[in-house]
Fold:
Amino acid sequence: MRKLLTVALVALALPAAASAHATLTKTEPVFGKRIDQSPSLVRLYFDQSVDVLPNAIRVYSAKGRLLSGRTRASADKRTIQVDVNYTGSGTVDATHKIYVALWDSSDMSGGPPVEVKSLDSKKGTVTFSGVQKVPAYVSAAYDPTGHWDAQSPPPAGTSLGMYAKNPPNPDAIDVAPGKTVKIGVTFNDAVKAP
Structure:
């Protein structure tokens, strides 16, 4: 007899832990698919990293029997570590931050970034864990007014930088599953948002 497996996201806290912007993009096996036997593994893919909560995901048989074990993060997590060095004249502190964005497309103006992290010093490191899509791209921005919070496009006068050996073309960042890639972004006030 074929069993119907249903993946139930039991804890509503899962999307909250993933942030308001994480979206489930794929499941294995496919949601609602009928299969002959219980899978040894169920995978959920999100468009950005999420925190794994105990018992957040449960798999049931068609008769309602709980089949799943402990929820855990994938061991094939991709990580990009970005060393940032802003050499411009602006003051960087808790109210005048540098924002570093991870993109899944080289067209960095084509939609919101996958994830944004901030720094409150001219030099520092941000880490993007659980990178879902490669190649990835990284940009950095500093608004000297301190009024921008990276929830919208940067205002005019914002200093811009990106991971690129030959600007203005961004370099693709490829990272293998289970690996960490370290890159550097150095920028100043030479390139500004119009």
About this structure: Residues 3-60 form one domain. The two ends are 64 Å apart (CA to CA). Residues 1-19 have pLDDT under 50 and may be disordered.
